[in-house]
Write a structure and sequence with these properties.
The complex is a heterodimer. Helix content of chain A is about 30%, strand content about 25%. By secondary structure, chain A is α+β, with helices and mostly antiparallel strands. In chain A, helix 7 links the parallel strand 10 and strand 11. The longest helix of chain A is centred in the C-terminal third of the chain and has 28 residues. Chain A starts with 11 loop residues before the first helix and ends in a 13-residue tail after the last helix. Chain B contains 5 helices and 5 strands, in the order ββαβββαααα. By secondary structure, chain B is of the alpha+beta class. The chains are: A alpha+beta, B alpha+beta.
Chain lengths: ~775, ~160
């Protein structure tokens, strides 16, 4: 058995020797270089563009502007499965280049040049004349009457408003003896910061266009490039090499349509579009900033009588993944702490900021920030112990969500909390840190999280797999699920080896994907791949095995039902005798003069299930009150991701997710200038991404309850680790100082404002006490 | 402006090289474009992320903010230079595999070069010192946890081996 083992990554050797080819490493040096000209206003219209000076720069091939886009095909960018039902299709609000600009950084023109220097020089010489409109950056101000309107079709800038109404909230709050607890909680705009920036290149191949892209979703890119160019989707070929991280940003169509269009406008010549880091922050995608308002009515026995959530999700200028993000958090709200009377109003609202899309956790880090900060506030208000309160009120064993059919099969929350508490020595530290005084104080806090696996029943869940047997008994595995760094290929190889019955080194997972060759599927998002591909790998593996054994029957005369494959050999099960090696069989199959066969298997599995993936974070901090600094001393995540396919890689996933959660909790924030709408810290120096110095030892713990619906007992793990560190850190700071932060990150800027407002520090200057 | 070129003579991964370089080119450009040493990665091109780190005369540098012309007379080591002639991995490369310190792999080449610089000092660094020395790298996948383990384990192994001698 390889599943469950800490096998080494199948791609590790190439990655530690520098042999792995990413998009830029594959691009021919003869490629033209494309650069994008972005708007330098937050809202308005391009009146005119003067490219004459730019065109004079030696080495410039073409300068193309929004006015050269004669055929306007609006396209959606979200990396969602396409819906054949128009009512469920993503909002198509993007153009390859636009004259109607809606944020500082919108795409208005592009330069194609022979080299980077010429492209950069030409970019600076393009003169743009704008008609400027007022802009709005705040999500609730954008909803007000008279606010600047971004898209005509969406009055008050509301992309979507959804409601949940369970029970009778208004009646429930009349119950005598209830304590009302109310709070506002806000998360900032942050960015994915994968170390490989988005990059793609395109060239014509006959009547078709080939795009090589650092993407999580090649088959979706094919569809959207087709939509954006107004050509048949089969005329687009998309290739995905190794990817240097995605985290959801590359689960969006970024510049593939523009690059393809530019190539076609220069005669199909190879054009490369490598996005600089500064533009990645602004003109790719970001995480939605969400402002949440929660009201809870708590009974004297510490249970919820009624609850209400209003969430305002800042979409930025275009729809991208849109309301799905806020809706996911809204959907989690009634489930995590079940309560009979719940009202939820979730709004997704356009503002003149960078476009928000998918980012690791897909709305749940924002939702857990609000919900788990609020849980702590409730405990403080009623004098409850945060641990006991959670144990009493969290989703119980046997809970079933009617929509997703997800079921709480195990006592996961208590198991995870127990394990994490032990790992961090919670009880002792909790006692030790009571009643501290002085400037330096320590605290310990917790947060739980809710997550699920994949997108069924909201959208299509399908996985296709192909296996092709080679002469030596090894075989290729192709699935549409993509390796983007998480270790998917290794997990797939482990699964395939077990199902077919061969040594791990006999499985070759084809990592580089090509939509002309790779079976159809929708790829890397929703922490779905191990779960989803598991079904098709098991199904196709069994099919391949059956075909191998049928051929073995012709060679050995033994009945198929008495044959098996074990460790790469055909074995007679009745006495365990090895009849022949798979390699002998495979060679015979391909070269037999009497019965030659190309033994392959291929199939699609449509998945109609989903699974909870739950867990918690415990965090310990030391707060320097006068310095307004919070230092993370210890942190533990505990997850129930079902049976782990590869515990070593699972731990590594959790470390990375925790790191992103720590950045979200303590450091990261993309700032926009209120006077101009311009982003102010769109580089890796001013945007504070955690370094190794900002982390304590990261501890990843697991509770392995096998997931009954899963092909391998496993379920999601990619995104869950990011969901709970930030509120756990905030709750630890609350424990240390008594100050309940309303806004993440807990950086000196926010701590200063909160500590000043709480009277912990006194600044002689009058500061805005608006926290 | 007419392009200006300059002859640069340097050693790259043990091999003497002579090349005409555009005076504006960075060492990253030279290594990637002229020598096709694509382990040298571009993550920011302004010295913030560390993905392009290479060792120059024993010291680790961000090659993206090191002009190619400065490489004249220098001895440069990239990740490709760590492998033995028959594909043998160096101890630190093996440790990155064993400790699952590699995920997307994009920051890995630069990180390993900084680790090499530390390891080549042949002394024991405290955990805090290792963290400080590795803090010029940004990684979004690993949380640095397994990178730290790989570096520390390799350091301890080398020190053990040294003691045994």
């Amino acid at each position: 058995m390889y599943t469950g083992q800490r096998v080494k990554r199948v791609d590790a050797r190439d990655k530690v020797t520098g042999r792995t080819r990413y998009t830029d490493d594959l691009c021919d040096r003869g490629a033209y270089i494309a650069r994008v000209l972005h708007s330098t206003i937050a809202n308005g219209r391009v009146i005119a563009i003067d490219t004459s000076e730019a065109e004079k720069v030696p080495g410039v091939v073409r300068v193309l502007t929004c006015f050269d886009l004669t055929e306007k095909h609006r396209f959606p960018t979200a990396g969602h499965p396409w819906s054949t039902d128009p009512a469920h299709q993503d909002v198509a609000d993007r153009l390859i280049l636009t004259d109607r600009v809606r944020f500082w950084g919108d795409d208005i023109a592009a330069v194609v040049a022979e080299d980077e220097v010429a492209a950069a020089q030409a970019l600076r010489l393009i003169k743009v004349e704008y008609e400027e409109y007022p802009f709005v950056l705040d999500v609730q101000q954008a909803m007000e009457e008279g606010a600047p309107q971004l898209h005509e079709e969406y009055p008050n800038n509301i992309l979507k408003h959804t409601q949940i109404r369970n029970g009778d909230y208004q009646k429930a709050i009349q119950e005598p003896g209830l304590t009302k607890v109310e709070g506002w909680y806000e998360t900032p705009v942050v960015q994915h910061c994968h170390i490989e920036n988005f990059i793609c290149y395109a060239e014509a191949e006959g009547e078709r266009i080939k795009v090589v892209s650092s993407t999580q979703i090649p088959h979706i890119v094919r569809r959207v490039v087709g939509q954006a160019l107004g050509i048949d989707w089969g005329r687009v070929r998309v290739i995905k090499p190794y990817v240097g991280g995605g985290f959801g940003n590359k689960q969006d169509i970024l510049y593939e349509p523009l690059c393809a269009w530019l190539s076609l406008r220069v005669g199909g010549h190879l054009v490369k579009l490598d996005v600089p880091r500064e533009e990645t922050f602004v003109s790719n995608r970001t995480r939605h900033s969400i402002r949440s308002h929660i009201v809870s009515w708590v009974r004297p026995d510490g249970t919820y009588a009624a609850r209400k959530l209003e969430a305002f999700s800042d979409q930025g200028a275009y729809a991208s993944h849109g309301h799905s993000i806020c809706a996911k958090g809204a959907g989690a709200f009634p489930q995590l702490y079940p309560c009979e009377n719940v009202e939820v109003d979730a709004y997704t609202v356009f503002t003149n900021k960078s476009v928000a899309g998918a980012m690791r956790g897909y709305g749940i880090p924002q939702a857990m920030w609000a919900v788990e900060c609020h849980t702590e506030d409730v405990c403080a208000a009623i004098g409850a112990d945060p641990l006991a309160f959670r144990r009493k009120n969290l989703m119980p064993v046997g809970y079933v969500d009617g929509f997703s059919k997800n079921e709480m099969y195990y006592d996961t929350f208590n198991q995870c909390l127990d394990k994490a508490m032990k790992a961090i020595d919670y009880d002792r530290k909790l006692k030790e840190y009571q009643n501290q005084t002085g400037d330096i104080r320590r605290g310990i806090g917790m947060a739980v999280f809710w997550y699920n696996t994949a997108v069924w029943p909201i959208a299509l869940e399908t996985s296709s797999c192909r296996m092709v047997l080679n002469q030596d008994g090894s075989f290729q595995v192709q699935v549409a699920e993509t390796e983007i760094g998480q270790g998917a290929d290794t997990a797939f190889a482990q699964m395939a080896a077990d199902v077919v019955g061969v040594p791990l080194d006999k499985v070759h997972v084809v990592s580089c994907q090509d939509t002309d060759v790779t079976p159809f599927g929708t790829s890397a998002y929703a922490s779905r791949q191990t779960y989803i591909a598991g079904f098709s790998i098991r199904q196709t593996g069994l099919m391949l095995k059956q075909r191998i054994l049928e051929y073995a029957h012709t060679l050995t005369r033994m009945p198929v039902f008495n044959l098996d494959i074990a460790e790469g050999n055909i074995v007679r099960t009745t006495d365990g005798r090895v009849l022949m090696s798979l390699s002998e069989l495979a060679t015979e199959a391909l070269y037999s003069l009497t019965d030659s066969r190309h033994i392959t298997a291929e199939g699609t599995y449509q998945i109609k299930s989903n699974a909870y993936s739950l867990g918690c974070t415990l965090a310990e901090v030391e707060v320097d009150i006068p310095m307004c600094r919070a230092k993370l001393l210890n942190i533990v995540n505990c997850h129930d991701a079902g049976t782990l396919i590869n515990p070593a890689l699972a731990e590594a996933q959790v470390h990375g997710g925790m790191s992103m959660g720590i950045g979200f909790g303590l450091m990261e924030r993309l700032i926009f200038d209120e006077k101009t709408g311009r982003p102010l810290n769109n580089n890796l120096l001013d945007y504070k991404l955690p370094t190794i110095l900002d982390h304590p030892r990261l501890v990843a713990e697991f509770v392995e309850n096998p997931e009954p619906t899963s092909a391998f007992g496993t379920k999601s793990l990619g995104e869950p680790p990011t969901c709970s560190p930030a509120p756990a850190i905030r709750n630890a700071i609350f424990h240390a100082t008594g100050v309940a932060l309303r806004e993440t990150p807990a950086n000196p800027y926010n701590l200063y404002r909160a500590f000043t407002a709480a009277g912990l520090i006194h600044d002689e200057r009058q500061v805005a006490q608006d926290v | 402006m007419a392009k200006q070129y300059k002859l640069v003579r340097c050693t790259v991964n043990g091999k003497a090289r002579e090349v005409m370089v555009d005076v504006r080119a960075s060492l990253t450009d030279l290594l990637r474009n002229d020598f096709r040493l694509t382990s040298v990665k571009k993550g920011c091109e302004v010295g913030e992320c560390g993905a392009c780190n290479v060792i120059i005369d024993g010291e680790c540098f961000n090659s993206c903010i090191y002009l190619a012309v400065w490489a004249d007379g220098k001895d440069i080591l990239t990740l490709e230079g760590l492998e033995g002639p028959n594909g043998e991995l160096s101890d630190i490369q093996q440790a990155f595999i064993d400790e699952a310190a590699v995920q997307c792999g994009f920051c890995t080449p630069g990180v390993i070069m900084s680790a090499m610089e530390i390891l080549n000092e042949g002394r024991e660094l405290s955990d805090e010192e290792i963290r400080i020395r590795m803090s010029g790298h940004l990684c979004r996948c690993t949380g640095y946890e397994n990178i730290f383990r790989a570096v520390k384990k390799t350091m301890m192994k080398r020190l053990e081996a040294k003691k045994g001698q």
